[in-house]
Amino acid sequence: MKHIYKKGNDHTLILLHGTGGNEYDLIPIAERIQPEASILSIRGNVLEQGMPRFFKRIAMGVFDMESLKEETKNLYEFIVKASKDYYFDLKKTTLLGYSNGANIAISMLYTYDNPVQKAFLLRPMVPTDVILSKTLSEVEVVILSGKQDPIVSNDHPTRLEKQFKALNAKTSLYVLNTGHNLTQEDLSILVKYTN
């Protein structure tokens, strides 16, 4: 997978962009919230009308479940390989996903037990109700949703919170007074969870 790796300290931020983004998009956010951390920023494998994504969709908010399953496996295997190639510990990693990137991060958490230490999920949806994981007891999950988000249904954040808590993840949900866009408030909240 196309990616950027930048060596920092022994904590690694794994960045997963939104639809139409690329591996450069979230680096400024990563550098703001945890400037000393190492960065692994990944570009999605799938193109939709020339726009990179992490998995296919059939329509807005309607996901191709086979693509989601396949690309979740591809992403997880890539991250495991990258951890060996770049010598970082998956138990000291944070997934930082925005929109489509957050959705595949959730799929990964729903598929593999305790794959990372933390997950920051910005404007996520529930990508699937198929949960294969037995436990996320070693994972801290922070969900940041927008109250006026035109893309994400209002019930998704609370459904995610419930599903993560059922897997014993340490879960925090914030519903901000904004839309699908990211704000300074998002960054301020994330900084609290990087110390």
TrEMBL record:
InterPro entries on file: AB_hydrolase_fold (IPR029058), PLipase/COase/thioEstase (IPR003140)
Keywords, ordered alphabetically: Hydrolase
Matching Pfam families: Abhydrolase_2
MF (Gene Ontology): hydrolase activity
Residue ranges of domain Phospholipase/carboxylesterase/thioesterase in the record: 9-194
Domain of life: Bacteria
Positions of transmembrane segments: none
Database matches in SUPFAM superfamilies: alpha/beta-Hydrolases
Protein's UniProt name: Alpha/beta hydrolase
Source organism of the structure: Paracholeplasma vituli
Organism lineage: Bacteria, Bacillati, Mycoplasmatota, Mollicutes, Acholeplasmatales
